Amino acid sequence: MNAEARKAHILQCAKKLFAEHGYYKTQISDIIQDAKIARGTVYQYFENKDDLFVTLLENFYDDWEKAIALNLDNLDLQNISAKQYIFHRIKNTLAFLEADRDLCSIVLRMGVGLHKDFDNLIERFEKKILNLIAGDLQIGIEYGNVRKDINIELTSNLIAGALFRISYYYFVYKKNSSHNLDNITNDILDVIIPGIFVSKKK
Amino acid sequence: MNAEARKAHILQCAKKLFAEHGYYKTQISDIIQDAKIARGTVYQYFENKDDLFVTLLENFYDDWEKAIALNLDNLDLQNISAKQYIFHRIKNTLAFLEADRDLCSIVLRMGVGLHKDFDNLIERFEKKILNLIAGDLQIGIEYGNVRKDINIELTSNLIAGALFRISYYYFVYKKNSSHNLDNITNDILDVIIPGIFVSKKK
Amino acid sequence: MNAEARKAHILQCAKKLFAEHGYYKTQISDIIQDAKIARGTVYQYFENKDDLFVTLLENFYDDWEKAIALNLDNLDLQNISAKQYIFHRIKNTLAFLEADRDLCSIVLRMGVGLHKDFDNLIERFEKKILNLIAGDLQIGIEYGNVRKDINIELTSNLIAGALFRISYYYFVYKKNSSHNLDNITNDILDVIIPGIFVSKKK
Amino acid sequence: MNAEARKAHILQCAKKLFAEHGYYKTQISDIIQDAKIARGTVYQYFENKDDLFVTLLENFYDDWEKAIALNLDNLDLQNISAKQYIFHRIKNTLAFLEADRDLCSIVLRMGVGLHKDFDNLIERFEKKILNLIAGDLQIGIEYGNVRKDINIELTSNLIAGALFRISYYYFVYKKNSSHNLDNITNDILDVIIPGIFVSKKK
DNA sequence: GATGAATGAGTCTTCATTCAT
DNA sequence: CATGAATGAAGACTCATTCAT
Fold first, then answer.
1. Rounded to the nearest 10 degrees, how much is the dihedral formed by the CA atoms of D85, D88, D93, D97?
2. Which chains touch D (3 or more CB pairs under 8 A)?
3. Which chains lie within 8 Å of chain B at 3 or more CB pairs, if any?
4. Range of the domain at A36
């Protein structure tokens, strides 16, 4: 196994265990046992336990950003309605979180304050998401799709909280029951669109 | 200081520290230092560190339930509109969380999986909240106020996630900036009511 | 055993082991086994292994300084000859080192560079000794007892090196054979006094 | 690079690092990084870290012995005075130590007891030096140059300690300031010769 | 011979918990 | 009840050494 593969393998095992037991209850011993490697090997690829965890999170955040950018590129922005746009945004977000349930579990369960060293990382991530949603709302306002008098700050948090909670519920908590992303997305839209979009006058 | 008061004092100090640094980063040493008591005294009132933390959470959950029941009692259910009802429910929830920001911080930041021993507690709490919201939605449907075709399970999670996130944002993260509960509640309602309530035909 | 006694006890055991095996080959395990205490107890009294070692050295240096000052006080400077003065100075130094052979072993064997954290401590100590000797030589010159054209810097090092080596040889290396401090001191003086003192003209 | 050269190269790098940081604080990692070789290569030339260090010391001791023998050969014993003889002996010793300051630093800083495995080596070395000096003193006595009543054991240690300390001071501690071996040697002789040599009767 | 990833025994340090005073 | 010194299991991390390529 080459260096790249070995590092990825360790990350993979660590991710699974962190997701299952959390940062503190996961020992290096657990990881090396699961990865079938020696104790020292972990430290060949990572500075320490923190570094391993942070690497996991940073990979997630990087992937997340790439996924968002990619998804935006794939949207035919000229020819879709505002509703179609928001549908894709939300569905893609859910799809991304669903794709890696371990990371989803880690990220969504983790709160600011878990560990001083992780705080900055998480805050940066949360701020980015809020800005993303706020940006979409702003654009919606400019295009006349979103109510002018909406409280963007609060609504961004409302949507972010809703998406995280729903992701956690369906992808982590009820991970074994079937669910359909299209349906989930539509159900979400049914609830929030009427309150966000300007009502169509006949 | 009598036994009751001393126990409350320890809980108070522990709460502050848990809120600030999280469960694992808060040491018994920190607590006894803050409470100005001897190391052994903690163990006179609590089985162990877990017990201290769990007591804190259970007190919170008990208070929460009492608050909800009390608030319901205070509502003149016969003479308020569905919108007025939901306004009070949400505002009271926010008010309760706002009242004790340390506990708010602990509860809202804490995720399932942090510690196996706390999982049941948290799950029980989350289930209760979801049921509460689902119950309200159900009643709304029966009274013809809420859309019959709403996905109750998903919407409960949506609302719960939104409320938690908003509480965390305003009461913990931006705890120093001013905010008005009536305004927050109204802004939330503006977003979710149109999608949940049946549209009024003229 | 009270705190003071316990700390002294740990220092005592650590000293013996450090003297016997050196800093690196002495484990905390060895110390606690020798002191018949629990692992954690060491850390109640000392930050870490370094701190334990440094405390030992600092105690030594403090005692050393006190001993020197005390010995000076006890000298009847008005009524003793220069030779008597230097006799007492050297004998007292030897006596001090002889009194605690473990510490003598540690201090005399330890060189600059053993450990970055200890360097400053040792340098400070060595500088002080050199200055002490240089000071005595200076006074001797002023009083017309010591040759004016002596190289004070070199001679200080010569005397310091000689004393340390002789102490190590008799008190550590040959610790079990008998020796007499008066004789040793006189033998030293026989060698160095003729080269340092001005020759008495008749 | 052939085997011989590579081994010498490793020794060279190791010496520098051991001199700078000591045995324990110098890691194999540091050495291979400095020598720009692979980890395993060290073990192709040396059994282990100890062996590397011991080789360094043994080389030093061998060179030392050769140098002493060579220097003796170069002395015209028939036609130099006792004072000239001792001048050369001391100057050559200083010159040898000055020539390789890294080794000088290692050897002079290292004490018995640093590491059980090195103890024998060091003791052997120290014994040899003491015997050398004692031998010279003995010869001096036989030739009537050295006082008959001198304490040879103590004086050997006195001279050895003085030379080591002075070497360390000028060649390691003050390595950057200029100094002159002839002057240093003469200053040493000025101090010790009057006490060692028999006084010339007129 | 050279390489460097992998190894794992060995150490220090932490911290919740206990218990004699 | 309160105290706080003592405990020791548990866990992170180090680093000399090995060995397959």
1. 180
2. C
3. A
4. 1-46
